[in-house]
Amino acid sequence: MRCLRSIPASFxxxxxxxxxxxxxxxxxxxxxxxxxxxxxxxxxxxxxxIAEKAKQHTALVKAMQARGDxxxxxxxxxxxxxxFSRRAVMRDWIVRSEEILSSITGIKTIGFRSPAGxxxxxxxxxxxxxxxxxxxxxxxxxxxxxxxxxxxxxTTLARIQPGAIILLHDTHxxxxxxxxxxxxxxxxxxxxxxxxxxxxxxPSDVARAL
Length: 210
Ligand SMILES: [Zn+2]
Fold this sequence. Notes:
- The protein is of the alpha/beta class.
- It is 43% helix and 14% strand.
- The strands form two sheets. Strands 2, 3, 4, 6, 7 and 8 form a six-stranded parallel β-sheet that branches.
- The mean pLDDT is 95.
- The chain binds zinc ion.
- Zinc ion binds at residues 23-24, 74, 78, 115.
């Protein structure tokens, strides 16, 4: 089973698109400010949500959807032990998440993103059976382990490829949250100035790319 890492352009005018993805939310401390920044820069994104958290913050999920952002399935609770469970248990972990997320949005998610990007043969088999695409990324900043600085954002932007799927997290708190939001704003502003647009990954993007 293939794993999606970037979105090929289908038209000339799509050749400058970037795809921001935010994992592990929705988060009461950070998501709303991320949405506000995206709005200011007319950027759309994809949020890979943890279903147990989405259940507690349905208004944030609906705000994403209202803006034209898309939603992906990032498992029920992000617990790695499910990778080592029996196939039926793992399947249930993904299906229950999908049911919760689609009960909030009214539609299927665009696909599954594995917690920590873990890929195992049973996971692939499970997703194949569910006919659910696996969506990875091509650019990451390790923003949960280290501070995401403007310098790192600019270095990456200088060599980024159109169609890149960028992994970030909308879960930061405290001082790190302030730095994250400032860096995100700089990244959005610089990228736009260089002619990039930010789009949400859609089901048709996924179908084309896989
Ligand atoms: Zn995650």
